[in-house]
Amino acid sequence: MRDQQQIAVADGLTKIFGDAPPALNNVNIEIKAGAMTGLVGPDGAGKTTLIRILAGLMKPTAGTVQIFGGLPGIALEDIGYMPQRFGLYEDLSVIENLNLYAELRALPKEDYGETFGRLLEFTDLKRFQTRPAGKLSGGMKQKLGLACALVRTPKLLLLDEPGVGVDPISRRELWAMVSDLTDEGIGVLWSTAYLDEAEKCDYVYLLNNGEPLFDGPPHELTDKIEDRVIKVTDFDGNRRHVLTRALDRSDIIDGTLQGRAIRLLVKSGSLKPDSNALNEGSKTIVADARARFEDGFIEILGGGPKGTSQLAQRYREVPESDVPAISVQGLTKTFGDFTAAENMSFEIGRGQIFGLLGPNGAGKSTTFKMLCGLLTPTSGTGAVAGNDIGHGSAKARASLGYMAQKFSLYSDLSVAQNLAFFSGAYGLGGSAAREAIEQMTELFDLGDKLKFNAGTLPLGFKQRLALACAVMHQPPVLFLDEPTSGVDPVTRREFWTHINGLVERGVTVLVTTHFMDEAEYCDDVTLIYRAQQIATGTPDDLKAKAAQLTNQTDPTMEDAFIALIEESEKETSEKIAA
């Protein structure tokens, strides 16, 4: 980036809101033309505040900002801004949103036709231009948001977490589209919670609690931990036990599951543990693994959580049973002539994690809602904890905890009021309710947030509160619909520490996620595409299928996701041609 033109620079940037600690404290940042600059950090790090200052929407408390050599807000026609929250009008169609933004950005009327045509082609939304924005899939919404930010071709494009809630295929498409823009000389600031995206940026800035922790090319952070990442394979016994024991060691600062393998980050200055130290048994293999930007990110933040979940330790044991915890046979839901989910069939045993994967709009949430009793199936049967979702739906709902895809709590109620409401909704009262609320407050570190309205919390705390409300009655079955969407990697690891611990207590979990590394925690997954199941098996099974299709030697779950969907598309095309 050394020889590229500087188009935005901030020195000593500080922003303070009232009596709160600084949202930004002495932050320096530089964005250059034709380069992808990454902005990463946990929830509440100050990323959105920084982007709003650069966009001229907010003034700093201290420090200086220059955009194209002048003050922010002077050259607005040269800035494209895509906010974190969907900033479009859901009741307006795709083309109506483009018209609105063209007027707001004072695009000459004679340029509408050519500009809209180019943007609709660029985002592949031409077929959907009359569809209301609110009825678009998550990926399409983000593409429309990007199109609206580009109605006047900017020199600086500010993107505040454009990949949140978007499936891997749509994320790759968004990345490719924006990469094309940098090739045209546009400078891009890409804020993200997906660290595989940050790893592909030309330059990265890392913030935490408003403080700058790192800036430089991604490899500079990765190089620092290159020789401290190990992969543990071929061990006997439960992979969750092995991971929990490893994370509780003082010489291990982070760890994740990768199918039947375990990936660990060793503390700086510590010797790499051998196979007997991690899992007694001569078969266990410990080998070096390639370091990733995420490893460096976790280390610079002080490491991930330990392996033992305090929530799980206080959770009641779910008794053994020959009856599947969740059973689904031929479950189908149609809306008029549209089929949202077709012939869904699977069984999940006690103490298992089952993942529903698929692109936005594939039918995952529809399947969830049928099993939760929120939607009546058109046909097929389902049971939760032995209770039929049709005839015994009330009993089925009482036996599960549900965490919805979008923040499902009451934003205008305080944290304490939400906890009180959901304790009553799940049948807790008196001393049982008080004990459950006290326990959730302690376990999820909500004590200093009890008086805050839930809607004002940072996303990470919102998700903590949502999970607390879902588990406070200690149900034997948990339904988690994209529980960590938009949440930073440290908070995601906290979630999965709890989920792994609960599964060891016999809890059964049905989960959807767009983070393919999270799918590795599942015992089995089913991939849903266009309302149908196209592949089912363990994460390793799906990766093996992808290896055969693509000739890759070590495909990731994201590679498998994309390869299997592309294969399904190919088979469908061949059937149509025949």
Annotation field: number of helices = 20
Helix content: 25-40%
By secondary-structure content and strand pairing, the structural class works out as alpha/beta
Mean pLDDT: 89
Uncertain stretches of 5 or more adjacent residues: none
Strand arrangement, major sheet: 5-6-7-3-8-9
What kind of sheet is the major sheet? 6 strands, mixed
β content, as a range?
Answer: 15-25%
Number of E-type strands: 23
Can you describe what's shown?
By secondary structure, this protein is α/β, with parallel strands linked by helices. It has 20 helices and 23 strands. A hairpin with a 2-residue loop joins strand 14 and strand 15 (338-348). Helix 2 runs parallel beside helix 4 (138-149) and helix 19 crosses helix 20. The protein is globular.
Topology of this protein?
Layout: E1 6-15, E2 24-32, E3 36-40, H1 47-54, E4 62-67, E5 79-82, H2 94-104, H3 112-123, H4 138-149, E6 156-160, H5 168-183, E7 187-191, H6 195-199, E8 203-208, E9 211-216, H7 218-223, E10 229-233, H8 239-247, E11 252-258, E12 261-266, H9 275-278, E13 285-288, H10 293-300, H11 310-313, E14 326-335, E15 338-348, E16 353-357, H12 364-371, E17 379-384, E18 387-388, H13 393-398, E19 400-403, H14 415-425, H15 430-443, H16 459-471, E20 477-481, H17 489-504, E21 508-512, H18 516-519, E22 524-529, E23 532-537, H19 539-550, H20 557-577
Parallel strand pairs: 3-7, 3-8, 5-6, 6-7, 16-21, 16-22, 19-20, 20-21
Antiparallel strand pairs: 1-2, 1-4, 8-9, 10-12, 10-13, 11-12, 14-15, 14-17, 17-18, 22-23
Helix pairs in contact: 2-4, 3-4, 14-15, 14-16, 19-20
